[in-house]
Write a structure and sequence with these properties.
- By secondary structure, the chain is an alpha/beta fold.
- It has 11 helices and 6 strands.
- It has helices at 22-34, 48-58, 76-79, 82-102, 142-154, 179-185, 199-211, 228-238, 250-254, 269-274, 281-290; strands spanning 14-17, 38-40, 62-65, 106-112, 160-165, 216-219.
- Strands 2-1-3-4-5-6 form a 6-stranded parallel β-sheet, with helices on both faces.
- Helix 1 (22-34) links the parallel strand 1 (14-17) and strand 2.
């Protein structure tokens, strides 16, 4: 789905929500690099009047929503802060979609793919990923439950482009939100193949999706899957040869977390068809994350 493509950067003017967030921060830098005028929204998503005020003052060509509650330090926070989670992730997101709809504006919404888990129709290791039209089957965490709810409701807004992000990774290994940074700091890790999103490659694609006025649901992950151990092997090879780690089972993990975690493969065919240059997850990890972080060997 897509309306007429919105051509030159002179006609573009992006309004971005999530200034203090990881993705929101990168979006601003990308706009600067591409010479696209942009403004960070000052309104709160749950305050409809403040969103209308932003739209009236900025008069954007497109709106991006990278704001939301994921919880600190992780999604377990949402289990004990349910009203706050609903207020931002459901009420707030719907508010923004609705005011954009009233003005005929495309909203690029950075959502989550952590609303699925491997099942009999999509077994682990089968290569059969969940497609955009599949119904979410993972409600183990309250965070994921709210995200599945809002995705279903947003299907009614034809102006919304929903991007299902999973286990985001970037070349900034100092960022605590980075999936690689997280698992290198864990005492123990599970080892399960998953679909993941390399932000360095895919966030520029999301700007291009806005320019093309693409809407609907998109699995916003690199094609294929990669496991925790495969990532940590790369980390050891490229970044820290002395790095070691320990694995544990899902059953053992369950004892140290409040809410279960989603593990799945998403089918990225739709995105790959639109952007054929997109790399597979393992290729993207090497090119965009590990090569730039490679420690140069000192020859004696």
């Amino acid at each position: 789905m897509g309306a007429e493509a919105n051509g030159s950067s002179s006609s573009l003017n992006f309004l971005i929500y999530g200034r203090t967030g990881w993705i929101g921060g990168i979006l601003g830098k990308l706009c600067e690099a591409q010479g696209i005028p942009y403004t960070y929204g000052s309104g709160r998503l749950e305050d409809r009047r403040s969103l209308i005020s932003d739209l009236d003052s900025v008069k954007p060509s497109h709106v991006f929503n990278a704001a939301g509650v994921t919880g600190r330090p992780n999604v377990d926070w949402c289990e004990s802060h349910k009203v706050e989670t609903v207020r931002t992730n459901v009420v707030g997101t719907l508010n923004l979609a609705d005011v954009c709809k009233e003005r005929g504006l495309v909203l690029i919404n950075y959502a989550t793919g952590c609303i699925f888990e491997y099942d009999s129709g999509h077994p682990l290791g089968s290569g059969l990923g969940f497609k955009e039209e599949d119904t979410p089957n993972f409600t183990g965490s309250f965070y994921s439950k709210t995200k599945a709810m809002v995705e279903e409701l947003l299907k009614n807004y034809e102006n919304v482009c929903t991007l299902r992000v999973r286990m985001p990774i970037s070349s900034d290994l100092s960022n605590p939100r980075n999936f690689i940074t997280k698992i290198t700091k864990y005492e123990k890790v599970v080892d399960i193949p998953n679909s993941m999103t390399i932000l360095d490659e895919l966030l520029p694609i999301s700007l291009e999706m806005a320019k093309r006025n693409l809407t609907g649901i998109w699995n916003f992950t690199n094609p294929g899957v990669v496991s925790h151990n495969e990532i940590l092997e790369m980390y050891k090879e490229f970044v820290d040869p002395s790095f070691t780690w320990k694995n544990f089972t899902l059953e053992e993990q369950a004892k140290v977390i409040v809410a279960p975690r989603s593990n799945n493969e998403l089918d990225a065919t739709k995105l790959k068809t639109e952007f054929p240059e997109m790399l597979s997850i393992k290729e993207s990890l090497v090119k965009f994350v590990f090569e730039p972080n490679k420690k140069t060997e000192i020859k004696g």
